[in-house]
Amino acid sequence: MAAEVAVSDRPVLVEVEHLITHYGRRKILDDVSLKVHEGEVFVIMGGSGSGKSTLLRYMLALERPTSGTIRVLGRDVVNSRPSELYELRKKIGVSFQGGALFSSMSVGENIILPLMEHTDLDRKTMEIMARLKLEVVGLAGFENLMPSELSGGMLKRAALARAVVMDPKLLFGDEPSSGLDPIVAAAIDELILRLRNALGMTVVVVTHQLESAFKIADRLVVLDSGRVLVTGTVDEVRESSNERVQQLLNRRVDDVELDPEAYLKRLTGS
Amino acid sequence: MAAERQDQALDGALRRVLDAVARTGRASVDGISAFGYGASLFAESFFWLFRGRSIRQPVRVNMIFEEMMQIGIMAIPIVTVLSLTIGVMLAIQGIYTLSLFGAESRVTIGIALSVTREFSPLITGILVAGRSGSALAARLGTMSINQEIDALRVMGINPVRFLVVPPLVAMMVMLPALSYWSDLMALFGAGVYVSLDLGMSLAAFFDRVIEVLTVNDLLHGLGKSVIFAGLITLVAVVNGAGVTGGAEGVGRVTTRSVVQSIAAIVITDMLFVFVTTR
Q: pTM of this prediction?
């Protein structure tokens, strides 16, 4: 309980309030609110179509919401000018689901890119910093390969290296350990914890994987159909009395009750 | 009963008409918005090109040179071959047509003017649209699907500055250059044929060409190339950035980009000629 108070006393780095978003006419996120405190690993969890990746896109100011406020590092990202967003984005790191490394550049060039864009360091220093980060993610010596020559797990690790090369205060990860074999996935989870512990980063991770979420999260939020089901520590979420949360945790298949007549109607499309 | 059925048929017909109207309207709005998007991209590109350095976000010169290499230098062999061929073709047609009046020796005027004012810029434009415009659309489409463009944005790197300006500048420099090269090659091809067929020496052929051509004719052709270059790049970017539907979508926008840019080139060519020549 004492630790909990300590977390909530720390400054809030990401704050989402009453976020409502639409895709065309379809409502995707419905009144989502959350707070991420400094130094914690915060996991956004949910099944496919729950809106978790969408939520990440809004936090990164890649889309404009219908309503609600989003503050990242104290800045209102919905109403920021491009120059303000530019300054903000230098302080955050993002690793995308498929890595999103630039296929026309080598791994090393990919990782150096943010440094080339935002710093005046000389090339040698930048190369050393890039190698340092590759070392951290266990890809030392791979800087001259092209992204197409890497495996899925290596791509995700290289993407993490690129995300942290500027030593951001805040790191976002979209499914950093999904789609990988259990050993590589565990290694990436370890890596995220190490980045938080060693570099003091605050980490926001989007994932659908329970094991990974429970392993790395200090706190998590569970989304379902665009709504927040529960927010809290791992234990609080585990003990949640919400039926849908328990369904997700215990991997129970959604039993949709449907009377035979309605079922027939849906099949025939009339 | 019959009346009801008639009503239903009428209803169906009305709905079809309304659907068609709605589709036309939607397509028009999409077209206009794509046009506006292209224009704003063009303006934004020049902002980054001239103002980028002062806000410490310069356009990388080496990227422009890389694009120039791809768009320009690598296209020289195919431009050479096609231009020589077109020169010979024009010479054959010209001599045939003029022989009807017994005025074969006047063929140089027709060749010199049609090559520099029309054939070179048009053929180079179409070639580059197929070669580099499609490649650009495919590249941007793939990047967009792989979230690479999102990655650029969240890194604080403006995608227009990074991905649009280099090919745009390279295209606007290299297309006129290629077009000029095409002028030379087509005239050479025509000269060789004319000298063989009419027994006129190559030197005499070029003497006449230079006599006939004015700087204005050359600039007419090269000026068009610059406009074509802008069109090819913007059509490719608008299509590539708007890709949806995975790898299949990339194929679709690539094809569409080539068709649209060739259409844009031919139509703009006509308008340009109408405005500057009449």
A: 0.86
